[in-house]
Amino acid sequence: xxxxxxxxxxxxxxxxxxxxxxxxxxxxxxxxxxxxxxxxxxxxxxxxxxxxxxxxxxxxxxxxxxxxxxxxxxxxxxxxxxxxxxxxxxxxxxxxxxxxxxxxxxxxxxxx
Amino acid sequence: xxxxxxxxxxxxxxxxxxxxxxxxxxxxxxxxxxxxxxxxxxxxxxxxxxxxxxxxxxxxxxxxxxxxxxxxxxxxxxxxxxxxxxxxxxxxxxxxxxxxxxxxxxxxxxxxxxx
Lengths: 112, 115
Fold this sequence. Notes:
Oligomer: heterodimer
Number of strands of chain A: 11
Largest interface: A-B, 25 and 28 residues
Helix content of chain A: under 10%
Radius of gyration of chain A: 13 Å
Number of helices of chain B: 0
Distance between the termini of chain B: 33 Å
């Protein structure tokens, strides 16, 4: 059974608007969550993370929200830019963030 | 050169071949990982090495054999693979072991096709 799910395979937004990418998890032992971004022909790169002791973490245009009771997190990108077009992976881990369980990814397309 | 470098970028091999994937990191990290991404599946952790010692084998078939001669180099030796092993193989590194919130630094991957 997949423990980390990204139910939207793709998302298309207009430049300047908000992009919201969602992720759900089932394992209550997960206490650290990360978002990675992947461009074609490149490996994933780390974007932002959040610990379970927080419900929000912000870094520039990127904000991650965590709802522990719902086992749900979301990544907000405001304002969205065409260069943000990529595949976004949600990942969840316990004590070692390197041993993460990944979601399937959501392909974000930001239209000029 | 910095970051995590994987070679080759693409590999086509027959089921009876033996080949190796190579990964090198120039970040001074102590942990290295192999992940696999099959079509329409999430990234799956295969192996973890901390300070050259294998600390995790995620039920990977023996036709995949990892080797970590030092903290900077990681290999994945392949033999008698099956067509369903065709995937993107990603190497990654991170600074520490144990309680470690450091994110992974990935290479660009090797696209493997087994014919």
